Task: structure prediction
Amino acid sequence: MSVRETLPRSGSSAVEETQPLDLEGVDSQDERTARLDTGDERTQVQPVPAPPADAAERERRRREREKALGTRRKNTEPEPVAVAPKPKRTTDKFLGSLGLLLLRLVAAGIIGIHGYAKAMDIGSVQQMLNNTIIPEPVIMSYVLAASEVAIALALVLGLLTRLAGLGLAAIGIGALVFVKWVQNPFTGNTLSGELELLLGAVGLLFLCVGAGGASVDAAFRRRRAAAKA
Result:
């Protein structure tokens, strides 16, 4: 294809024909080159590759490229971890709950009777505390009587059982240290303070294991677990 152009020459009215402009198509549709020759100047248009048609085409090309290179796309998502169900506490099973319930009722009966007796005869309690190194015998007598009654109620209901066990252990061990075992605890063939020793041990048991399944504490614990789930 040729195109002729006419340009006016300065200082002359003649019209001179310039060299023809040749445009030639090359090779393929994806690579197109146009060359413009005017005298000594040469301009060349570089081929521009056509962009992928859409995202699917780009993904297809990427897979072909990875397949050719023998590479795989790494999976960055963490594998799901199976969470094992939390095992049921032994103390929440039938026999454990029944045993702790019976022990709570027996301990509550003993400590409750002692607390009621102290409240009815507070003068004898004050006189007993006067013979020890415990300060403020009058105040401590009322505190001791009220504490024993409160511990008995807590053990019956199974409410704040660990705290009640701590109080029961403190009362039993305190009675041994400040009253029963001030002198030689062995009188003849017997050991003084057997009841207080037993109550102290039972209190430590409740402090360690709690009230068991048949208690208010266990009901609160199950409700919290259901709320979290």
Notes: Residues 94-120 form the longest helix (27 residues). Confidence is low (pLDDT under 50) at residues 1-43. The beta strands are 6-8, 15-17, 35-38, 41-44, 186-187, 190-191. DSSP finds seven helices and six strands in the chain.
